[in-house]
Backbone:
């Protein structure tokens, strides 16, 4: 009962399934012709800058606002030069603007406090 092929003596349900080569899906290259995917040296940090701007404004912390302002300006410059992914440009601009607003509001608060102290001092100086 020697057989040349291993499948001859087996019933049909025990025969191994035929293996076919896996065919790769074919993609239409024309679909991607309009898409330009250049390589950028750096990813954008838009979300980080936006969070720093919001924190600087909400916490009235001038250092955080200034960091958002400086990082935002540097990232927008890098996006203009083509070194950074421009996808996060709007988020970066929003964070930069919030950082500027936080810095300006802090400066206004300092000026108002100085005017208050000067006013109180002048009041007591002339009250005598």
Residues:
């Amino acid at each position: 009962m020697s057989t040349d092929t291993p499948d001859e003596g087996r019933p049909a349900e025990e025969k191994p399934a035929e293996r076919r080569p896996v065919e790769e899906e074919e993609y239409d290259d024309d679909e991607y012709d309009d898409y330009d995917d250049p390589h950028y040296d750096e990813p954008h940090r838009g979300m980080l800058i936006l969070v720093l701007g919001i924190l600087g404004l909400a916490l009235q912390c001038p250092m955080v606002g200034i960091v958002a302002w400086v990082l935002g300006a540097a990232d927008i410059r890098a996006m203009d030069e083509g070194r950074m992914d421009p996808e996060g440009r709007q988020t970066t601009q929003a964070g930069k603007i919030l950082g500027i607003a936080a810095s300006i509001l802090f400066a206004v608060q300092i000026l108002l406090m100085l005017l208050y102290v000067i006013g109180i001092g002048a009041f007591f100086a002339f009250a005598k």
User: Anything to note?
Assistant: The chain has three helices and no strands. Residues 116 and 122 are 10 Å apart (CA to CA). The radius of gyration is 34 Å.
